[in-house]
Design brief:
The protein is mainly alpha-helical. The protein has one domain (3-46). It has two helices and no strands. It has helices spanning 3-24, 27-46. The chain is flat, with a radius of gyration of 15 Å. The N and C termini lie far apart (30 Å).
């Protein structure tokens, strides 16, 4: 991965998070955080 590609992808992620905060009051971020927590607990079970 080149530096340019990393900067572009990082900027897109930050832009998506910023848009979520502005448009939907962070509901998508909270949903994904909850699902990620459930997923990590599930993975720990199978470890």
């Amino acid at each position: 991965m080149t530096n340019t590609l990393a900067i572009i992808l990082g900027s897109l992620v930050i832009l998506a998070l910023f848009a979520d905060v502005i448009l939907t009051d962070s509901t998508n971020i909270l949903f994904l955080a909850k699902k990620f927590t459930e997923f990590t607990e599930w993975m720990a079970f199978w470890r």
